[in-house]
Each structure stands twice: as C-alpha cells, then as structure tokens.
Amino acid sequence: MPVERWETEVLTLADAVVEQAELNRVLENRHLEGYGIERGGTVLKLLERRGRDVMPYVRAKLEETIGGWGRDKDAIRFIELAERQGWWDLWSADGPSCHLSQAVQRMHPQADAEPIARR
C-alpha cells in the first residue's frame, strides 16, 4: 500500500474511532509493514490529532518509526512534540541519547553536557 493512502486511512480512523482501545487496535491492524518506510510524519500527525489516545500504538511502533540510521530528523521532531506536550514517557523513550542530551540542555542550560545514560 502506498504511504499516502495509508496516511489517509489512519488519519480518517483517528477522526472516526472514538474509543481509545479500539483506535489502537485498528491502527495496529492497519500498520504499514516493511523496511525503509517513512512513517514518522504520519505518526506525528496521529499524535497531534489524538494525543495520548494513540500512545499505545505509537510506543509499540516507535522503534521501527524512528529507529535506525538516518532518521535523526524524525527523532528530533518526536522529542520536540513530546517536550511541548509534557509527554515525558515518550520523550525519554525517543531517539538517540545525543538528542535527549540536547533537549535537556535546552530545558536546563546549566545541566551537565555529558550524554544521558539510559538505565
């Protein structure tokens, strides 16, 4: 399925399906599988439309959405959205530690510049 069609379908579902668990179930069923697929922009749009309602789906698919080489731009966009919304669980799970260190520096300029170590 082309990414554009998938995006149209999942955003339509985000507007139509009211119940959170049902929305996450149908998003999971319609998830676009494959390597190198640009899902980041669509998943960000889902987060912007439905917020925490889609967090189970987003967290389950986060690694394949922004993980891997060359997706730093997507990781940064997710970190920035999570920071603006106060979604610290998504913020801390998102992306390479160098991006998290930069975000901490923005929030607390006096914070130690050492990279953040995940536990």
Q: What is the topology?
A:
Layout: H1 3-16, H2 20-29, H3 40-50, H4 55-66, H5 72-85, H6 88-93, H7 97-107
Helix pairs in contact: 1-3, 3-5
Features:
about 120 residues, mainly alpha, 7 helices
Walk me through what this model shows:
The chain has 119 residues and is mainly α. The longest helix is centred in the first third of the chain and has 14 residues, at 3-16. Helices cover 66% and strands 0% of the residues. The protein is globular. The protein has helices spanning 3-16, 20-29, 40-50, 55-66, 72-85, 88-93, 97-107. The chain has one domain.
Principal-axis shape: globular
Ranges where pLDDT stays below 50 over 5 or more residues in a row are: none
Indicate the radius of gyration in whole angstroms. 15 Å
- How would you classify the helix and strand content by structural class? mainly alpha
**Average pLDDT score:** 82
* Count of spatially separate domains: 1
Tell how many strands the DSSP assignment holds: 0
Query: How do the SSEs run, as a string of H and E?
Result: HHHHHHH
Profile the largest sheet: none
How much of the sequence is in beta strands? under 5%
- Helical amount: 55-70%
Total number of helices: 7
Q: What's the N-to-C terminus distance? A: 38 Å
